[in-house]
Amino acid sequence: MTLNARIAPLLYLFAGLFGLAGVALAAAAAHGGGDAHLVASASAMCLAHGPTLLALAIGAEKLRTAWLAGLLIGAGTLLFAGDLVALRYAGSGLFPMAAPTGGFAMMFGWLAIAVGAFVRRG
After folding, report:
1. Which candidate, 68, 100, 98, places its Cα nearest to that of 86?
2. Burial bucket for residue 18 (CB in 10 Å: 0-12, 13-18, 19+)
3. Model confidence pLDDT, tens digit, residues 14-42
4. Where does the UniProt annotation place the signal sequence (predicted)?
5. Residue of 72, 73, 80 lying closest to 101 (CA atoms)
6. 90 lies in a domain?
7. Domain containing 83: what range?
8. Is 32 within a domain?
9. What pLDDT score does 33 carry?
10. Within 10 Å of residue 25's Cβ, how many Cβ atoms?
11. How far lies 31's CA from each of 22, 41, 82, in Å?
12. How does pLDDT run along the chain (122 residues), one tens digit per residue?
């Protein structure tokens, strides 16, 4: 079993959890006051990257870099959205530079998808 095949269930799991969180956070942003823009941004990242992880899981055997892209995008989304939600509801972020670190991880995940276009199956 390839690494992509082994990581696919994890990608499905986080795709579903990010979809759930994205909808819940969108509702919280719509009905919340104060720093609702933080929750709206977290919602947008979850709703954008949940389907991405789903697509990576479905196409894991066709894209050699799916495992790397999925890990980067998943971890990045957790850090980015988690930091914004923590800032909104706990009053402080996860740790200094958590959101930017997550943002860079997501960008590198997308880059891993692009690089996958040039990495051929052996």
Report:
1. 98
2. buried
3. 999 999 999 999 999 999 777 889 999 99
4. 1-26
5. 80
6. yes
7. 3-116
8. yes
9. 74
10. 27
11. 14, 14, 19
12. 788 888 999 999 999 999 999 999 999 999 977 788 999 999 999 999 999 999 999 999 899 999 999 999 999 999 999 999 999 999 999 999 999 999 999 999 999 999 999 987 65
One DSSP character per residue, 67-78 reads HHHHHHHHHHHH
Instruction: List Cα–Cα distances, 55 to 7, 59, 77, in angstroms.
Output: 13, 6, 16
Which pair of tokens denotes residue 46?
Answer: 């979850």
Q: Give domain status of residue 121, yes or no.
A: no
Q: Positive or negative CA dihedral for 98, 82, 70, 8?
A: positive
Q: How many CB atoms lie within 10 A of CB 2?
A: 12
Task: Give the total number of structural domains in the chain.
Answer: 1
